Amino acid sequence: MIVIMLLSVGVGLGLWALAVWLVPPRPPLAALISRLNAEPAPTPILTTGDSGWAVRLGSPFTGLLRALGLPTRNVYQDLAIAGRSAEALLAEKAALVLTGLLLPAVVELLLALGGRPLPWAVPLAGALGLAAGGFLLPDVTVRAEAERRRAAFRHALSAYLNLIHLQLAGGAGVEGALSDAAAVGRGWSFQQLRRALNTARLTRTSPWATLGQLGEELDVSELTELAAALSLAGTEGAKVRASLAAKAAAMRSRDGAEAEGQANAVTERMALPGMLMAFSFVIFVFYPALAQINASL
Fold first, then answer.
1. Are 100 and 130 within 8 A, CB to CB?
2. How many CA atoms lie within 13 A of 113 on its CB side?
3. What is the pTM of this model?
4. What are the tens digits of pLDDT across the range 198-215?
5. Nearest 5°: phi and psi at 115?
6. Phi, psi of 39 (to 5 degrees)
7. What is the 3-state secondary structure (H, E, C) of 148-175?
């Protein structure tokens, strides 16, 4: 009876998902009117792109996941930083969920053909666990990649501030110092800085405005503060060379403290395998004596 109920629920969910995919719900009229009257958003500086078997397999189910309100706003920001698209994330989610649901069934079928079937609860629990893990794994991967790129960008921003300070000390203007300093560095972080400055040049906007937009897209408050300080220098003639040097020194100190904290955390985690090995060695040495004592009793 329980198996029949579970199968009925699965068939009902599948039919509902198929109906939503074939006839997607229409957005309300107020949302359409607000979309027409809304001002166009600025062109994002960060670019995205993805491909792979998971994207191709799960792409038919992205509409259903979007109807459920996925991905969330925080995930959108992490996707932009990681250089991935929302469609690719949803497709990967769907592909991993389908794989997690079908893999235990395939294993159970092979075991049944071999004459050693498992109880029905084991593949069912395995399918639900793998499906839940496959649904959450892309979010965790994207968040980890975004945090890694944010940390790398903060490290590169410290060097960028030093380069700007040197350019300003040499008599360069604010805009010239920004462009020349960005042209020196290499890597993903400096590539995003150069893209922001090129966007400002092509759209005839101020470079600190696009740098501030990049800081908001990356969720890096240090870049937003730098854009505000450069805006004062560019519009009101404020002298920011000393403040840039102080900010660069503060960022270097914080990076050093964070690196030291991470090293200490890794050292503490390395102590656990050593303790486990020592405990296993003690058990290995004393187990024969304990077994002999128990046998004599």
1. yes
2. 5
3. 0.68
4. 999 888 888 888 999 998
5. 85, 15
6. -75, 145
7. HHHHHHHHHHHHHHHHHHHHHHCCCCHH
